[in-house]
Specification:
This protein has 286 residues and is an alpha+beta fold. It has a single domain, classed as Endonuclease/exonuclease/phosphatase (Deoxyribonuclease I, Chain A, 4-Layer Sandwich), CATH 3.60.10.10. It is 27% helix and 28% strand. It is built from 6 helices and 14 strands. The strands form 3 sheets. The protein has a 6-stranded mixed β-sheet with strand order 3-4-2-1-14-11. It has a 6-stranded mixed β-sheet with strand order 5-6-7-8-10-9. A two-stranded antiparallel ribbon has the order 12-13. Strand 1, helix 2 and strand 2 form a beta-alpha-beta unit. Helix 2 packs across helix 3 and helix 4 runs parallel beside helix 5. It is globular, with a radius of gyration of 20 Å.
Length: 286
Amino acid sequence: MKKLRCRQRTLFLCFVLLAGSFASAQNIRVISYNIRYKNSIDSINGWEFRKGNVAALIKYHKADIFGTQEGNWEQLGDLEKSLPEFSWYGVPRVAGKNGEFTAIFYLKEKYALLDSGTFWFSETPYVKESKSWDAMYPRVASWCKLKDKKSGAVFFFFNTHFDHRGEIARQKSAEIIRKQIDLIARNSPVIVTGDFNSVESSTAYKTMVQGGQLRDALFITETPHYGPVNTASGFNVSDKPIRARIDFVFVNNRFKVLQHATITDQQEGRYYSDHLPVLAEVQLIK
């Protein structure tokens, strides 16, 4: 009888340990999406015609967390209404109703927000609306420290948008975000999403992956990449090649990448934005 009880206790402990390992290994479906700022020049591609499809794409592809670029307060409010299961954090790069955010949306039932912040890409990163070098606009990165409510795992999520004109500004922005990640997240698990306005051959991209601390999710996915590689698509689906790959998901070595895709959902020959969203399914490594 004593041996039977010992065996039962051993089996119970094994079950608890096994259950704990499964709980800590929950997958995270991440999307990076430049949703194109709301304006009066996009005609049939205006936000009012696209917003339902953008929200539906996020829901259909079962994102746990997604980072948007270019969205202003009104656009983020529209997504908030259409996706009530998400909470979000962000600060506009400049004040006013047209200030663009690098917002981070996360499933509020799955994750708890422990901390958050925003910094600017300039010689004074914590001075609001600051810009330096050859940047055309002030640019920002926002971050969230999130806790998985089921497993207790804590990780950091950074989302950003580099300047589209200033090459030096993009190079410096890569240096700043790397430094800020080191200061804020230290050795914690890190995911980075964004429109970097930089291709793989650029200095900015090389700075992002220098030393292997951050890795491009495309190149370490355990299943083959799905969809086109390039992401700067324009609105119209056509025979022209998609222009460039400038939207990325990066992870540090605390994550492995299970899947990576560029999503080409469209209706009536038009994409839902002038950038294609990038999806990665990642898993935390103990």
